[in-house]
Amino acid sequence: MEISLNKVIRAISIALDLSQMSSVDGTNIIEEVTNINYSKHKFMNHSLRTCYIAIEIGKELNIPQDKLQAVYISSLLHDIGATNFFNVSHYSNDFIYEHSIIGSSLTKEFPLFNNLSDIILYHHENYDGSGPLKLSGENIPFESQIIRISDLIELLFNETQPSLVQKDRIVQWIKENNNRVYPSNITEAFLRCSRKDIFWFNLENLNSMNFILDNVAPKINHNLTLYEFEKVAYIFSDIIDKKDDHTASHSLNIGELAYNVSKHLKYDEEKCIKMKIAGLLHDIGKLAIPIKILNKNSGLTNDEFNIIKSHVYYSKIILDRIEDIPDISDWASNHHEKLDGTGYPRGLKSHELSEESRIMAICDIYQALTEDRPYKKGFTHEKTFRIMNDMADKYLICYKALGYLKETIGYNDL
């Protein structure tokens, strides 16, 4: 099985932008060196716009195709370490330093493009050495330097204003920081781009016309094997679980449990791995949920619960972007559906729910009931299965799938 790397990267960038939008809470997060206030910026499509700017600058510099591919991928993923740091307790230097370190660590095991980790690590370094890791000049990876200026241009961009109205302000700011934050050759490349109205019109319309990025992006012909995609899924399960204070290793455990049930049913190995990946990614939509709601220790209001419910919708949106995995996307995003049609988000009924989706729902409920949370101790097997048996009696979850789980873990409730 082959999975398009390009589609995986684009899906991940959507998840990262959703996460940054949901994490900014009106706080005064300021990067001191450049004096840009992140809290006034809307982060939807931040990765896409940063990527578009970086590609145009890279092309203007006539960099080799392999470097342009690296710029494309790393600019889409440059904030992968920021998913847990856009919140009220993290300011300027802490945020900049920590998310660079975390982003680098997360991407060390990323399949292909072995320099991705270093590019992300140094994407906040300044040419004069005043960045968080104190790297300077040509010691900073060239791709990181391109992302640095592109990220700042995107942060200066105000999507509520016509692009040409703000062109002069942005260009002037870039000129003022030449040879301090980025080198003059990259500044000049941006200035050449900025003279073309199409650059600004594309930047303005990218959020509603994603094909703009498709038209300029370098061709990425690399495909991931299922096992390489599994590595990506592990990276994101870690990000998901770290965002939610209540679920230390929930996604990881669901992935293992779904795999074990699949092995018990003698599914072939490829399908077992797919089930594991679905478990690892089933809550990826939680990246779109505001932290203050996700981590609330008291009871949720109806409005807050409705926001929480949207996470499975976003899981489907993100995973459907990877067109090569429709089965994994369905299994992952159906875990809150119920046999009687009262589940969410699609209100599917029994005849619309596959065995795999039913197993995923069982694994999710079992794991949620048995694991410790900050506000409660995990239930015993006896109490857990009393609750789940009652749910099966009410035609909410599948008796047969519940039986598969009990057989897999060796539980006998007689």
Automatic annotation (TrEMBL):
CDD domains, per database record: HDc (cd00077)
UniProt cross-references to InterPro entries, sorted A to Z: HD/PDEase_dom, HD_domain, HD_GYP_dom, HDIG_dom
Pfam family membership, one: HD_5
Coiled-coil features, chain-numbered ranges: none
All residue ranges annotated as the HD-GYP domain in the record: 225-414
Residue span, HD domain: 43-156
Domain of life: Bacteria
SMART domains noted in UniProt: HDc
NCBIfam families given in the database record: HDIG (TIGR00277)
PANTHER family listed in its UniProt record: 3'3'-CGAMP-SPECIFIC PHOSPHODIESTERASE 1, CYCLIC DI-GMP PHOSPHODIESTERASE PA4108-RELATED
Protein name: HD domain-containing protein
